[in-house]
UniProtKB/TrEMBL annotation:
Its main location: membrane. The lineage of its organism: Bacteria, Pseudomonadati, Pseudomonadota, Alphaproteobacteria, Acetobacterales. It comes from Belnapia mucosa. Belongs to the MotB family. Gene3D superfamilies: OmpA-like domain. It holds the Pfam family OmpA. This is OmpA family protein.
């Protein structure tokens, strides 16, 4: 803008005033501080909500105790007061936080009747246990090295008899539990004799152990002999095998009941060896033809045709029961 005026010499003076224009000035940076406080408050709020959701009641109580300052001179909550409904360290009677603590307090004793006390006293007493039976002395076998000769022989005979009895029971059970041999139980005779444990395989009408006139045992006889071998293999006793026929004359191709009974006994010997019996344990193989019938009053009975396997006693002693 120009303005006219007069100078000292009477001339006119031109004064030029210029005003700078431009954009309106800014209001300063105070709004940034306010915005930062708002964002901080929101972060604190969301952090608080997350803590409330992610912590348990006990953890929140611990946080409340942590942020409640301990002031031994104050009697009222200071600082944050009672956050999260927790207890403060300035509770009456305590100089430290009592949050979560259990304080036993003495109160009036309940009224109890004598009959209740007697009943509880009886209930508290343990039930009397039944008297223990008197201890049974263990049957220990004596040491053979400390026994006299006569007693030693009796003890060895007793042990041998017990072992043979156990073998007899095992063989009976093995035949009884096998469905294929259950019908042959009547054709198996097991007994203790003065020589030892005698096991006899008897023929029966329409149930022979060997083919007529033949020395090879059939399948049923082989199965029974395999059972006998399995039981006898557990013992160290010697073995004697004998074959017997009935009184029916048998003579063909220069063979008689003597040869037939001997051949059958020898066939049983081979089956026992195949079943695991050591050959050194076999003490004898004999054929008695019809000279020792099982049923003397009926010499032609099928039961007289038999083969016997005897587990010999190891020590002299009384005969079996």
């Amino acid at each position: 803008m120009a303005r006219r005026g007069k100078g000292k010499d009477g001339g006119s003076t031109i004064v030029i005033r210029r005003e700078e224009g431009g954009e309106a000035g800014h209001h300063g940076g105070a709004w940034k501080v306010a915005y930062a406080d708002f964002v901080t408050a929101m972060m604190a709020f969301f952090l608080l909500m997350w803590l409330l959701n992610a912590t348990s009641e006990e953890q929140r109580r611990g946080l409340a105790d942590f942020f409640a300052p301990s002031n031994v001179l104050a009697r009222a909550p200071s600082g944050t007061g009672l956050p999260f409904a927790g207890r403060t360290p300035n509770a009456d009677g305590n100089m430290s936080s009592d949050n979560g603590a259990i304080r036993p307090e003495r109160g009036p004793a309940p009224v109890r009747l004598d009959i209740e006390e007697e009943g509880e006293a009886l209930a508290d007493q343990p039930e009397p246990s039944p008297p223990a039976p008197p201890p049974r002395p263990a049957e220990a076998s004596p040491d053979p090295t400390t026994l006299p000769d006569e007693t030693l022989r009796a003890e060895l005979a007793r042990r041998d008899r017990v072992a043979l009895e156990r073998a007899a029971e095992d063989l009976r059970a093995a035949v009884r539990d096998d469905p294929a041999l259950a019908e042959l139980a009547r054709q198996l005779r097991i007994e203790q004799v003065p020589e030892g444990l005698r096991i006899q395989l008897l023929d029966a009408e329409r149930r022979p152990m060997f083919a007529q006139g033949g020395a090879a045992p059939n399948d049923r006889a082989r199965t029974v002999i395999a059972k006998v071998a399995a039981i006898a293999a557990r013992l160290p006793n010697g073995i004697a095998i004998a074959g017997h026929t009935d009184a029916t004359p048998f003579r063909t191709n220069e063979r008689s009941n003597w040869e037939l009974s001997t051949e059958r006994a020898n066939a049983v010997r081979r089956l026992l060896l195949d079943g695991g019996i050591a050959e050194a344990r076999v003490q004898g193989v004999a054929g008695h033809a019809e000279r020792e019938p099982l049923l003397p009053d009926d010499p032609s009975n099928a039961a007289n045709r038999r083969v016997s396997v005897t587990l010999l006693r190891q020590a002299p002693g009384p005969s079996g029961p």
